[in-house]
What we know:
By secondary structure, the chain is an alpha/beta fold. The protein is built from 7 helices and 7 strands, in the order βαβββαααβαβαβα. Helix content is 32%, strand content 14%.
Amino acid sequence: xxxxxxxxxxxxxxxxxxxxxxxxxxxxxxxxxxxxxxxxxxxxxxxxxxxxxxxxxxxxxxxxxxxxxxxxxxxxxxxxxxxxxxxxxxxxxxxxxxxxxxxxxxxxxxxxxxxxxxxxxxxxxxxxxxxxxxxxxxxxxxxxxxxxxxxxxxxxxxxxxxxxxxxxxxxxxxxxxxxxxxxxxxxxxxxxxxxxxxxxxxxxxxxxxxxxxxxxxxxxxxxxxxxxxxxxxxxxxxxxxxx
Length: 243
């Protein structure tokens, strides 16, 4: 192993900036979408700022079974992206970086995700494109590209081993279920993402709200958005392909 960090997380729809720091601090980020889809969660929705406060942008999805996986979940309305673009435009038209960001985002919605039918694919495309905008150079994979085994901690360790990782960067909520002794036996150090104390940025419509989709930061700060990420100065290691 050669000083490689891996993060693993379910895909979210236009996630908040902490999600992109979880990506930015890793060498490989694995979208963990072979697990159960949860309704009314971050998988298919996120919040933007409006004159009336934070409001949801939701991609309606079909739920056929309680055991349905994220990567098996189809959208319910093929024209959902048109409504989302209209809502985004109406609420961010006066933001300082509106022209730059809206033209870029509109092209993604119209030409890259409009024909996608699964929420997992929509999320992955948007996450990859936003990482490019933020100059985050982490390699992003779907867990379907890797061999998976059973067991909560065992599955994560097996992913890390395939990517030759010696560090696993996790969100703090996983402290409730990760078996750290198993990671230790596999010579993988577990570190925890710290989501506290994010700096505020210029924002419309009243008091600052830190818990919004990353697009709020993009529209308000444009090309300066990465300066408001904790991973802004993180240098990537030189890594080779795991294949």
